[in-house]
Amino acid sequence: MMSGQAENVAIVTQQLTKSYGKVKALQGVDLTVYRGEIFGFLGPNGAGKTTTIRCLMDLIRPDNGTISIMGHDPQVNPVVVKTNSGYLPGELHLNANLTAEKQLRYFNDLRGGQAEWSFIRQLADRLDLDLKRPIKNLSKGNKQKVGVIQALMHRPQLLLLDEPTGGLDPLMQQEVLNLIREAKEAGTTVFFSSHVMSEVEAIAERVGIIRQGKIVEVAETAALTERSLVQATVHFQKPVDCDILAGLSNVKMISQDDGLTATLQVWGEMDDLIKTLAAYPVSSLETVRPSLEEVFLEYYKSEPDNKEVVDHVH
Amino acid sequence: MFTELRYSLRRYRWQILGWGLGVAALGLIIVAFYGSFIEEQEQFMQMLESYPPEFLAFFGGDASTMATPEGYLGMYGFSLLPLIVGIFAILAGSGLIASDEEGGQLDLILAHPLSRTAFFFGRLIALLLASLLIVFLGWLGFSVLLGGSALELSWLEMALPFLPLLAQVLIYCTLALLLSMLLPARRLAALVAGLVLVISFLLSSLSTLNEGLESIAAFLPYAYFQGSDALSGLNLGWLGGLLAVSLILSLLAWWRFMQRDIRVAGEGGWL
Question: Which of A119, A163, A214, B6 is 20 to 30 Å from B140 by CA-CA measure?
Fold first, then answer.
């Protein structure tokens, strides 16, 4: 990697592998996350999202491969990496006997007082969290808020968030997404995993999709949705033989109504379809771009053993 | 490391008070009743002589030695103290790191900027200090009534048996800690360490009656517990040996902790 590129890179993993007994959790994960970007990490349960994030934080040790976070190997310089990072685990567990404030004071003491207490209060106010309440009396969503605050409170250079909006109500989900956007505007790199496609689509500039421990796609969020399939609905002025359209190589017929309306799925370029339609009396043509969720599901539908995954995501 | 040490020590405060004051109360009673024991010595001796030797073996000796301060303190206090405080040692040692790991909290704690080494030794030193304070409170309880007691021991002399007791506590703390780093569950580590504690006590006690057991008992910690025998002089070789083994167990636990993955709640084979 060129030195100029290295300075611009926040996270690099190369050929990261990790097995739990016979289960291959990661199978050669190569990822590059650039400084200052929001990178969404998608995949169903068991795909390897959490394992990747926990490797980055040196909580688990990969069997093979290398990791660089802001130029440091987390196994060699864990303190430097963790000083500059904020981490929110997917399964958040806090000390139930402490109040939210005491828990955050403990975390801040572990950071050597890196965070300003006024900023912590500001975050708590925005998330509508009462810091005086014991954690054992907090709902799952309120515990998640404590987790979000501890990840953000020291204004880290890098945020590693595993399902950051889990357990939060829609209003608070939006507030957390706002906080992530603000962190990015302040120069923070954000690497976050999620099941909620709409939120990834809303804030992530780039997306990585992991399937069965392998990265199957890394792309800009917009490009990923644009280059994927399009749903086209064609209305004809008079009935036509729609089977001709279904015969095109990149078109699949979804439905047709007495030859007057045809709903199609189109992969890639629409040139062939439009040229074919030119021979017919078309009254209108509507196209709909897929959501990121539909794109994501496309990666799984093709695998026969992934019916369960697709059902789960739905 | 000091943050973790401070917070861990704070978490131990109720255990220190509970176990420390419990041992102290036992000491107060034992020392206070020595006068009555001497006055009723004849009846006590008759009662003790009626017990089978196998029973007396568990309390540190034969009936003839039990009228002496050493025998009395050994029978009613020091022979059993490693078992009593050993329970604290095993629970605290096995849970030092594994309880937060099984509870899922360790994941987030170790995501903060402290190295695994600093975290490990911060907690271990807190546990050692907690053990020291428990033994110290116990010593205070055994010593506070010595002034008016027929035991005729000074506070300093009374401190001597508590040094081997501390060494026993440290052995079980570090053994349980190492087992918790090797075995898949804290409870399993506590169970194995607890078995070592009980078997060690039984074998060492019975080896006074059956010399054949001595060779097996020699591999277990209780064989090197002086108890009230320390009143007539510490066996520094045993004491140093126990402390050295504790150090080795601690270093092995640290090495294992440095190598292994941190598991999250519900992951792996928790029992």
Answer: B6
